[in-house]
Amino acid sequence: MNIVCCLKSVLLTAPEGPVVRSADLSDLNPFDRPVIETALRLREEAGGCITALSMGPPAAADALRQALALGADRAVLLCDRALAGADTLATSTALAAAVARLAPYDLLLFGTRTSDSDTGQVGPQTAVRLGLPLVTWVHALERTASGFVAERRADSFRERFAVTLPAALTIHPAACIPRDETLAGIDAAYEHGAIETWGLDALGCDPAEVGEAGSPTRVVSLAKKTRDRKCELLTGAGEEVAEALVRTLADRGLIG
Amino acid sequence: MNTFLTDKNRAVRRAARAFCEREIAPIAKQIDQEASFPWEVADKMGRLGYFGIQAPKALGGAELDTASYVLIIEEISRASGGLGLCVTVHNSVAVAPLLAFGTEAQKQRWIPPLARGEKIGAFCLTEPNAGSDASGIEATALKDGDHYCVNAGKVLVTNGGIADICLIFARTDPRAGRRGISVIVAERGTPGFSVGDLEDLCGMRANPVSSIRLTDCRISVGNRLGREGMGLAIGLAALDTGRIGIAAQAVGIARAALEESVRYAKARRQFGVPIARHQSIQQMIADMATDLDAARLMVLRAAVRRDRGEPFSQASAMAKLHASEAAMRITDHAVQIHGGYGYSKAYPVERYWRDARVTRIYEGTSEIHRMVIARGVLGD
């Protein structure tokens, strides 16, 4: 079972100006941890190789090292000035080119979203680029003779899909509880783990289709959102306070 | 501060912080109030390598550097001083001296279960009449063929209630004074080995501190660490490393106190504004932050010197003295900033204050540290 996990190094706090990605300000996307956990469990059952794949500046290597510390076998970072400024479409184009180079593989796994841009588009778009069957929001996987039955949960539905391999899946954050890195794992990831860095040449992509050049999306503006919170203290006897609370909530249309 | 840190150090800190915030911080108040040791969390920490931070990989450890070690102790102690104490004592004055002075066979026997956290280590030096003056030890280990007959009454043993492997300082030659003390490794379960009642302490209550008594306990000569008479040298070497850990612990507790104070000062309003807007509070916050930063830098310097193989005894003594005294000042300010609430168990700062207090006492009091530091400075 060869599995490719697509991971993202996310920003920990919203930028106040131009985005500078440094290791201290970044972390592995928390929604990608269940992806790695799913891959590790599949490898424990069936053996094989887990490749962690990411696109980003050199600082993104830290997220890949977290994957190595958790037990991934191989780590590939797509890193090239020409890939910078990519929107989700251009990111998917570059990732698809890299995944094609990593063939043969059985599963291509993604998180459902990222904590810093939250589009949820990269997994599905990459699957489409590669012509792979895709199941999103996968909660559980069951092995069958020809592949997997993937259980997807959305709203109040539980859907089961028979999937043939190779296939792409986005893994629901609640699919499993991700493990922690062991200290020895972290040591090994930094002392012995290799990050393969692939540039545009290695991917064989048209420069016009990746990075800012290949991105049809234009962000008009980016501003930090501040939440205004108001605190009102209701005083009086228990019953009066309860009534006042219900009245206040009803007046504001928060309860019916 | 990051100048000292490698990418690996930062990765270790990130992993430790995430674990401590998720697993330890939520139970810290409870284990303090109930004076209970959190076995469930400790088991997880054992599997992740927190009980063999610097032990070689071949013996089941993580083989990390001292800088990583102090970052981990800071993170654990920020969440729970009592659990930080368990981990630092286990690693630095039980595992470290076994690694430094043990024979290959002794390391093969004791280190793997200690490094995996399946067994807990303790350092048993203190006696009712031997504290700062370690040469006052009255415990005896008298040779009888291929065994020692050990009689010891050790008190205030950190991890005492849960320790499996104890480094016992005892006189193998009662007439040889300071040179007559040796280290005998006693294992729980040996006939004559008994654990006393847990101490009802002011702080660090999650740590099962107790007395340990050995009565006519027959222990193989093969359990002696180093040569006969090396006891005090082993003890002092262990404490050099141990002090870095205690200093890191003080930094962790102080950081928790500062963070809590900043949060509170921004939320608590008096005279129509958050109290953080008042200069008197700002002065305290500035002193706390500066004290903390200096302490952390000193701890890291001692750690880095140890990693580079440079002499670190003076640096670790200074780090321990400053960090523990700073932690006391910082936690005291934290209580003051919280006012009446700071004195209540409803807020965590009184716990930080209680936990910080003992860092000025154990593994060498501040007074002993000043004596050691002055000796170094004066060249006596």
How would you sum up this structure, described in words?
The complex is a heterodimer of chains A (256) and B (380). By secondary structure, chain A is α/β, with parallel strands linked by helices. Chain A has helices spanning 33-46, 61-70, 88-101, 122-130, 183-191, 200-203, 238-251, and strands at 2-7, 9-11, 26-28, 49-55, 74-78, 107-111, 134-143, 147-154, 157-164, 167-171, 195-198. The longest helix of chain A is centred in the first third of the chain and has 14 residues, at 33-46. By secondary structure, chain B is of the alpha+beta class. Chain B folds into 3 domains: 2-119, Orthogonal Bundle (Butyryl-Coa Dehydrogenase, subunit A, domain 1); 122-229, Butyryl-CoA Dehydrogenase, subunit A, domain 2 (Beta Barrel), CATH 2.40.110; 232-378, Butyryl-CoA Dehydrogenase, subunit A, domain 3. Chain B has 10 helices and 10 strands. Chain B has helices at 7-33, 39-48, 66-79, 81-101, 104-115, 231-267, 279-307, 313-338, 349-357, 366-378; strands spanning 121-124, 140-144, 147-157, 165-171, 181-187, 193-198, 210-220, 224-225, 269-270, 273-274. In chain B, the strands form 3 sheets. Chain B has a 4-stranded mixed beta sheet with strand order 1-4-5-8, covered by helices on one side. In chain B, strands 2-3-7-6 form a 4-stranded antiparallel beta sheet, with no helix packed on it. In chain B, strand 9 and strand 10 form a beta hairpin. The longest helix of chain B has 37 residues, at 231-267. The model of chain B has no long low-confidence stretch (mean pLDDT 96).
